[in-house]
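Re-run with default settings, no changes from the original entry. Doing this only to confirm the output is reproducible before filing.
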Amino acid sequence: MTAAETIDAFHRGRFHIVQPRGRGHRAGMDAMLLAALVADEGPIRVADLGAGAGAAGMAVASRLERAEVVLFERSAEMAEFARKSLALPENAAFAARVSTAEADVTLTGKLRNAAGLVDDSFHHVIMNPPFNDAGDRRTPDALKAEAHAMTGDLFESWIRTAGAIMIPGGQLSLIARPQSIGDIIDACGRRFGGVEITPVHPREGENAVRILVTAIKGSKARLSLRAPLVMHDEGTHRFSSFVDDLNNGRASYRRR
């Protein structure tokens, strides 16, 4: 490890991630909630789109012993952090089931397939797309800006790729800000049905700060708005027992 890096423990030390110190996107609760949306204990292939240092994908591999995960990341620097993470002895239990690919998830057609985003090849696709509007005040941190700033019709391009690389009946899982709900539903379109949306609230009576979304490729089921997930017990800064289990890989957030 260099002075420009940190090694951070997740799932109460069951795996560790190498991340840039003081810059770039640093993984945390969002990545753990995203990983918890994969609730499939069979032999599965999982694509983590825009994986960064790989926290969400590795959280899936750490919890599900039969999952194979590919971390797709456009930034060469962040992909290198993911590779460093996989080389850590603390991650030896699952490192052989996780690989890293430098790829732009907005690619289409033959270019997408050539980048390793192969049609009809994954059971699950997870994503935590950039969530800041490109017109928002930009951070001077270029690495963080790339991870956080939305450009173009982002959800359409990312969800299009998810639909292409997923087997029929496969599950899309994502975490986003509530403002994006309309864009996400539009992007799912005819590709995905059975959309389930869970608002995530810091505390009872406070507005949602995130949404958890799952959908099934080719499903004709209607959209479902699930009961809120409340992060903290009333009057405390502690996570609720269920959220703490999700954050630490002791539980999954299953579809209805």
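The helical segments are 29-36, 55-63, 76-86, 109-114, 142-148, 154-165, 181-188, 241-247. The chain has a mean pLDDT of 92.
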